[in-house]
Amino acid sequence: MWTETSSGSLIEQALRRPDVTTARMQAAIKDWLGLYYRTDTDPDVKEDPCQRMAYTVVNKLHKTVFGEYNAKILDAAKTAAGQRMQDQLNEIDRAKRRAMQAMLSGGDAYIKPILRGPNQPLGISVVRRDCYTVLARDDQGNDTAVGMLEITRQNGKVYTLVEERSIAGDGRLTIRNRLYCADQAGQLGSPTPLATLPRYEKLPEEYTYREIMGLGMVKLHSPADNCVDGSPDGAAIYAPAAGLIHRIDHNEWLLGREFDHGQSRIIASEDMLTRDKRGRNRMADDIFVAVDDEAKNVGVTIFSPALREASFLARKNEYLRNIETLIGFKRGILSEVEAVERTATEITSSEGDYNLTIQDLQQAWAEMLRELLTVCDAIDREYKRAGAGQRWDPDSLVIDWGDGVLYNRDRTWAEYQQMVASGMLRPEIALGWYFGLPTDSESDLKKIRKKYMPKMEQLGEDEPDPPPLPHQEGEEPPGAPPAE
User: Which candidate, 385, 430, 381, 396, places its Cα nearest to that of 78?
Assistant: First the structure.
C-alpha cells in the first residue's frame, strides 16, 4: 500500500529532487481529499460534514459511469494470448470503482500493475494523488519522473521504501529503489540494504526495462479543468464547488448549534434553584436558566424559540443543485429533478447535455484502459510470462456502456433496422454494431454473414447471374455493340 505523501519532503530528501507541483496545487489536493474523507465535526473551522457532499458527488458519478459497463477482448480464434488479456481485463475491472473514485476525488490517480505468480494476471494497485510526488514533466505536461514511498513497521523500527520511476531520452523506464530505517514515523532515517526486509530482498536497486512502457503505470486523468493554477495536474470533479461545500458544512454546523441552543427550557428566578452545601445546583444546568430576582421576573416562563427547520433530504437536494451549477453539470445529474411536463425538444436537449457530461468521464476511462492493457502486455513480454508473445492489438478491446447513458440502444437499433429496410445500410454493418463486431473489411462482413445470416450467405453463393435489364422495342439492350 503506497503511503500518503503529506510528508512529501521525505521523497524530496531521499531523491534530492523537488516536487514540481505548485504549493497552491498541493494545498488544493489536500483540501479536496479532506472534503471527501472527513466524517467528524471540526470545532476549529466550525464545519459539520454530516451531508458528505463530496462523497455524494463522487458516489453518484462513478455509479452512473459504470452502471451498465461491459468490456471484453475480441478473440474469435480463442488463442492463449487473447485469454491472457481477457484475464488481465477482468483483474482491472475489479479495481475500476476504486480507480474512478480516486480520480474524481483527487484529480489524478495512477493505476499500477504489480507482478504476481507466473500463471496469474498482473495485480492492480490504485495510487491516489496524495500518495506520489511528480518530480519531472515533459513539454507536453506528461509526467516523466515520479516518486512514491511505502512504510513498513517492524521490530520497533520504521522502514521507508522510496521508489523513483523515470523515463530516459530513449523512452525506456528505469526504477530505482532505496530503503531507509528510522526510529519513529515522519523521519527518513539512514539508508539500509533492501535485503534487510524479506519482502524487498529480491528487489533490485536499479532496473531499466527493455520494453517501452512509459512509467510502467498509467494515469487516470480528470476531464475537469484545473481551476487552481492551470497546471497539467488534474482537478477533482467537485473542485469548482469546494468553497461552496465548505459553506454547506458551516451552515450545517450552525443549524446544529441552533437546535442545541434552541431546546425548550424553563426560566426560573434565582430563589427557585436548589443548591447543595457547596453551592452547586442540584438540577441539571440545561433545564433551568437563572435570572436576577427582581419581582417582575419571579415565577416560571417557558422559553421555546422558533427554529429554522428544513428536511435533511430537501436541504441535500438543494445543495446538490447549487453544486451542479458551479461544476457545470446538467440539472438532475446529481440532484433529483421535479417531474414537470416538457416538450420532446427539451427532453432531447436535456439528454444530450447529460450524455456529454458522463461521456467525458467514460472517455477518460476508455483511453486509460487501452493504455493500461498495453503496459500490462509490455510487462508480460519483459518478464517472458506465460502467453506473452505477439504484441496485443488495442483494437480488440470492445467497451459497451449500455443503455441510457451515451445513447438509447433500443432506439438506435430501431433506426438501424429502418435504414436496412430502406436500403440505406448493409445489414452486416447493423449486425456488427449490435453484437460489437468489427465491420472494417469485406472479410469482417463475410464472417458476420456466415454466423448471423446463413441463408443470405447461401443465396450469395448459389444465386445465378442476374438477367439483363429490360429494354423497350427499338432500343439497343444494355451492353450491346454499337450499330454499324
Answer: 396
Strand ranges for 64-211 from DSSP E:
70-73, 108-114, 123-128, 133-137, 143-154, 157-167, 173-182, 190-192, 206-208
Amino acid at 293: D
How many Cα neighbours within 13 Å face the side chain of 102? Answer: 22
User: Is residue 88 predicted with pLDDT exceeding 80?
Assistant: yes
Residue type, 368: M
Region 412-419 average pLDDT: 89
Q: How many Å apart are CA 187 and CA 62, to the nearest integer?
A: 37
- Which one-letter amino acid corresponds to residue 12? E
Quickly count: other Cβ atoms within 10 Å of residue 278's Cβ.
5
Please state, in angstroms and rounded to a whole number, the distance separating the CA atoms of residues 97 and 220.
12
Report angle CA 449, 441, 387 to the nearest 5 degrees.
Answer: 95
Arithmetic mean of pLDDT, 197-225: 95
Q: 334: buried, middle or exposed (CB in 10 Å: 19+, 13-18, 0-12)?
A: buried
Relative orientation angle of helices 53-65 and 96-106, to the nearest 10 degrees: 140
Q: What is the pTM of this model?
A: 0.74
CA distance 224 to 104: 9
Q: Could you give the strand order of the β-sheet that contains 288-291, starting from the edge strand earlier in sequence?
A: 288-291, 265-269, 300-303
DSSP structure string for 304-337: --------HHHHHHHHHHHHHHHHTPPTTSSSPP
Closest CA to 323 of 392, 393, 245: 245
All 3 cell numbers of residue 150? Answer: 511505502
As a whole number of angstroms, the distance between CA 346 and CA 286 comes to 55
- Quote the CA–CA distance of 92 and 382 in Å, as a whole number: 20
Cell of 293: 430576582
In SS3 terms, 179-199 reads as EEEECCCCCCCEEECHHHCHH
CB contact at 8 A, 197 and 152: yes
* Dist. CA 134–CA 143, nearest whole Å: 7
Please give the grid coordinates belonging to residue 389: 508473445
**Amino acid in the structure at residue 243:** G
- 343-358 average pLDDT score: 52
Write down the pLDDT at residue 309. Answer: 53
